[in-house]
Amino acid sequence: xxxxPVYTARSNILIVxxxxxxxxxxxxxxxxxxxxRFWPMLAALMHAPIPETIEQKTRLICDNDLALWDTIESCxxxxxxxxxxxxxxxxxxxxxxxxxxxxxxxxxGATAYRLxxxxxxxxxxxxxxxxxxxxxxxxxxxxxxxxxxxPALTRREEECGEE
Length: 163
Description:
163 residues; alpha/beta; Uracil-DNA Glycosylase, subunit E; 4-stranded parallel sheet; two-stranded antiparallel ribbon
């Protein structure tokens, strides 16, 4: 089961993962594993409280002109192992980019990035590979994640047309 995208008509940065983990599917929303650092990291970067409910998580994404989805609509996978992914049916990121002014896609981890560039060709949209927030990526501390993710989730002034 994949999830519908979270976005508004103002969303300009799309965050993508690969495919929902078993814990996420159980909870019915993105990044549901309690040890995943995605929501605490995003809250810290947006100077907001850590969201606990799906409604709070959705609000955090939407209030900051972000969008959230996965690169895969369906696949065969063993547990939560990205390395086991096969039989990929990609999501329609081009459709989402027509619904919102997406300028940048931020990929949560190497596999999300690989799948994004393999299946999604979106001229004019910058695609960035960032370290995974997964608990399996223990080599990356929260501090290092914040340092890498922060610049990717903010628009530079010249991109905003500000002086």
